[in-house]
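notes to self, project folder thing:

trying the whole complex as one job this time. last attempt i did each chain seperately and stitching them together was a nightmare. two parts in total, labels are on each line so i dont mix them up again. if this works i'll redo the older ones the same way
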Amino acid sequence: MKEHNDIITLAHGAGARRTSALIDEVFQPVLQLPTQDDGAEIDHRLVVTTDAFVVRPLLFPGGDIGKLAVCGVINDIAVQGATPRWLTACFILEEGLPIETLRQVVESMARTARAAGVQVVAGDTKVVERGHGDGIFISMTGIGQLPPKLELGVGRICHGDQILLNGTLGDHAVAIANAREGLGLDPPPQSDCAPLHTLTAALLSAPGVVFMRDATRGGLATVCNEVADATGLGIVLDETQLPVNPRTAHVCELLGLDPLYLANEGKLAAICRPDATAHLELMKQHPLGANAAAVGTVSDQVRGVWVRTAIGGLRPLPMLDADMLPRIC
Amino acid sequence: MSNQLRDSAAVKTLTNKLARLERPIRIMEVCGTHTMSIGRWGLRKLLPPSLQLISGPGCPVCVTPVSYFDALWQLPDVTIAVFGDLLRVPGSHGTLENARARGMDVQVVHGPEQALKLARKRATVLAAVGFETTTPGIADTIRRAAEEKLDGFHVLCGCKLVEPALCALLDGKPDIDGFLLPGHVSAITGSNAFDFLPRDYAASGVVAGFEPVDILAALVLLARMICAGEPGVRNAYPRIVTPQGNQHAQKLIRDVFVPIDTEWRGLGIIPASGLGLAPRYAHLDAARHYGLSLDPVPEPPGCRCGDVLQGRMLPHECPLFAQGCTPSSPVGPCMVSSEGSCAAWYRYERA
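result (full assembly):
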């Protein structure tokens, strides 16, 4: 009973353990990337990041692939503490795509970029034969500027640091699952897709932020596991503090999903020095942080990631092997 | 999802009661959803060491034999509609996930009726596995396909019954004091369906819900019966489960299926423990239509899923556990299904 690991499966794209294995085995040995973060500082306080978007359906409640691309790239830049400035967009279009659909996506992309004060400065378009794509795939690159003297990074995380989250978990994944699988929720749940750069700027106005990461594929659980792996420190999350929209919680129970592992497109975890009350207050005052909460603590007393359950039990929260819902971003 | 059922004060009261057991006891939770809930809430760490919980054969994916998966590989170019958990179970030729990457048309469905929609476009085989909980939905789908005279729709029947498996397990005289009985299955069968436990085996069982307070309250009841030496069956999930169960669903199952001898992973062939299609629906049987072989296939070498499913071994006692067998490259089915005892142990109890 040999397992065949010689071909790509959807699990390789889930952002979880198998994605890491693919990077370690195929990309890293030859490309020797200086960082495995989503973005990198290149020169003169400039950071660059790149991301691909393959969501199905192209238009979903709360967003579309164009808005998703702009927000995704802005957020990767913002969590590094940088101000997003310039974007480039590559479109891979499938023969047969209605031009009206493309127009809607591009208009939404432009609107989102304009509102966020970033400029799309270059782009490319390719068309593939029918059946060789899925309507629209977008690849987007972004460049941002770091403020002078700001140093964020996993290396700065210490025992006792607090983990803040700016709102409810899993809403993007549930919105997509409902739109795609016909779960029939009415009104349909909305994706949380939003640019987070003004929220990160607000947070950074108070000293003591040491690390930020947007909780996309793999959810908050994956962010926490990456931090735990990189630092050798443990993390304990408090289940009673985790914000989850009641309807998201309901869908998760029904489908056997855990909101901690579900993708978000407008949520970030910020690791802050105690006392983090000031940072939590800053989050709550921001329109994208009304449901913000202090959800956990970094600890040198445990290894790995744990959840203190609502009834006082303790359960581990390991890195998942693969996501249950493919192609949601 | 009621908060009362997740109330930490109630949990404390119940765990205190369990802390005063007169003797060590071993309880098997039959159902995979219980296994997951126990892990998800961290319940094991709240229980006294004298109360041992062991996982039983109640995860449908785990008890589905290799031969079933191999039969799916024998299908010609048709759409295979499967529940998500089946995707990563290794058969002799690999997993369905790999098969899909190689071009086999494998579609994940959330309910059996979605297979009808697929079958209207293209010949489709529904991989039907599950216990009494999922069987009524599958039965209804089969009935509808027959009414619609949907030519392209067939079912590979892997549905199983809980009672014959528990009997087979008990015939082996396992070291188990009582059973936490499956709440969802009981909603269909009724709690009376488990009266054979005290009658034929002098064993006790309590039907339990899936919230932490449900599980602990059932354990308290069960521990009391065990320690008093008074075997019986109680229903601690009366808000969902009645003594007679859902008779409409039972009739649907009886109309569409007939009991057949079937192979269980790790347990072998158990008489009248599976469900085959009744004669009037036999033309929808994928095994017959496509001439598939379901002859038993040897289990992978070293795999002890059978012992784990019978409660003879805890997951981490298997020599392959977390060594050759992990959720990313599972050897046996208990590591694959999200409700499998090894997957639950790997995820929740390992550290």
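what i see at first glance: The mean pLDDT of chain B is 92.
need to look closer tmrw
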